[in-house]
Amino acid sequence: MIRGVLFDLDDTLYNSSEFVEIARREAVKSMIDAGLDISFEEAMNILNKIIQDKGSNYGKHFDDLVKAISGRYDPKIITTGIITYHNVKVALLRPYPHTIKTLIDLKARGLKLGVITDGLTIKQWEKLIRMGIHPFFDEVITSEEFGLGKPHLEFFKYGLKRMNLKPEETIYVGDRVDKDIKPAKDLGMTTVRILKGKYKEMEDNNYSDYTINSIQELVKIVDELMNKTKI
Amino acid sequence: MIRGVLFDLDDTLYNSSEFVEIARREAVKSMIDAGLDISFEEAMNILNKIIQDKGSNYGKHFDDLVKAISGRYDPKIITTGIITYHNVKVALLRPYPHTIKTLIDLKARGLKLGVITDGLTIKQWEKLIRMGIHPFFDEVITSEEFGLGKPHLEFFKYGLKRMNLKPEETIYVGDRVDKDIKPAKDLGMTTVRILKGKYKEMEDNNYSDYTINSIQELVKIVDELMNKTKI
C-alpha cells in the first residue's frame, strides 16, 4: 500500500542545472562589467574549477575567482557578482511545469509528501518557500540537518523515519541514478526517475522502476500502484 | 584647502534606522504568519534583546528568536523571516533625497569622496551598489577590513591614508556625535553633522562645525570653505 512520496529537490522539482548556470554566467558578466579584467570564457573556466574543487555550497566562489584574476580582495566586484546571482535566482526560480498541479493531485489521494535533499537547510528551504510549494510537504529533510547526505542509506532511512513511512509504502522520485534512485531502490522503495537536468543521460542499470519525462506522469503511476495493492 | 569628503554610510546617505526597523517588523510578521506562536509585540521584544546582546551583524538573529519562542530549530519559519527581510531590503533601500545630486555637485568641484563605515564589507558594498551610488566614491573603507571600527582614531587615520588626504583637507559627514563627529573633530577634520536617524537628538558638545538637515546643504558649506581658503 503506497502511503507517501519522497522527492529529491534540485533538478526534480525545478530546473536547478539551468538556473544555477544562468545565474553564474550573469554574475560573471556583471563582474566583468564592474571591472574584472578577463574574458568571459576564461573567467567561467576558473569559476568552474573553483566550484569543482570547493563544492557548490562553499560560500566564497566569487571571492576566490576575483582573487585568482586580480590578485586581491575586491569587495566591489565580489558584491556585484553576489547581487546579480541573487537577483537572477529570485527572477528565475520556479517549479517545472505541472509540478503544483501534480502535488495537489497527490495530496488529494491522501498521500504524505516529503522532500529529501543534499544541501544547506536554509538554502533549500529558501527555494521551496520562494517557489511557494513548501506547504505541500510534511517534512523537508536536508543533509545538513542529518550530518550525512546522499547516497548514504542512513540518510534515506532517517528520511523515512521523519516521514513515518516504511520503504515498501514509499515512492521515491529523483533525477540521479547514483545518488537518488540506486539507494532508494536498495532500501526497497518504488523508484521513479525523472529525466531532467544534467544527469538525464546517466546509465540506469535497471534501478528505476519507472522513468518519466514530466512530473505529471507520477499521478498515473500512483493510481496504478494504489489499485494494484487494493486488489 | 578642502580636497575631499568622507561620509558615514548608515543614516547619513540613506535611512538605515527606518529601513532596518521596517524590515525586521515585516520579517517578524511573516514568521508569525508562518506559524510562530507569539504576539507581535512579544516577538519584537525578544528580537530586540537578541540584537542588543549579539550585535546587529550577528548572522543568527532569527534562528535565536525562533529557538527562544518554540524551543527548537525551525528552518521553515527562520527562512520565511530571512526572505521577507531580504525582500523588504531590496524594495526600500534608496538614498536620502538629494543625495545623488549632491554627490554629482561635489564631484564637479573636483573633490575626492569616500565612505567610512562600521560593518561587514560585503553588506556595506551591497547597500552602495543596490543604491547605485558606489561609482561616486574613490574609496569605501569598512571596519571589517581594518579590524577596528568607530570611534577608534586609528580607523579614521587609516581612512584618510586610503584617501590620500590630510585631516585639514577633509570634510567629515556623519550622523552620530560619539562615533563620527567627535573622532573626526579630534583628528582635525571639518565636521558636518547630518540630523538624521535615531541619534539626531544626541548632545553635540560643539563637536560639529556645521549641522545640516539635508545633505544638499553640504554644497554651500563646501563652496564657502573653498572660497575661504582661496583668499
UniProtKB/TrEMBL annotation, chains A, B:
Signal peptide: none annotated. Pfam families: HAD_2 (PF13419). SUPFAM superfamilies: HAD-like. One of its GO terms (biological process) is small molecule metabolic process. The keyword Coiled coil does not apply. Keywords: Hydrolase, Magnesium, Metal-binding. Its cofactor is Mg(2+). Coiled coil: none annotated. InterPro entries: HAD-like_hydrolase (IPR051400), HAD-like_sf (IPR036412), HAD-SF_hydro_IA (IPR006439), HAD-SF_hydro_IA_CTE7 (IPR011950), HAD_2 (IPR041492), HAD_sf (IPR023214). One of its GO terms (molecular function) is metal ion binding. Belongs to the HAD-like hydrolase superfamily. Catalyzes the dephosphorylation of D,L-glyceraldehyde 3-phosphate in vitro. This is Glyceraldehyde 3-phosphate phosphatase.
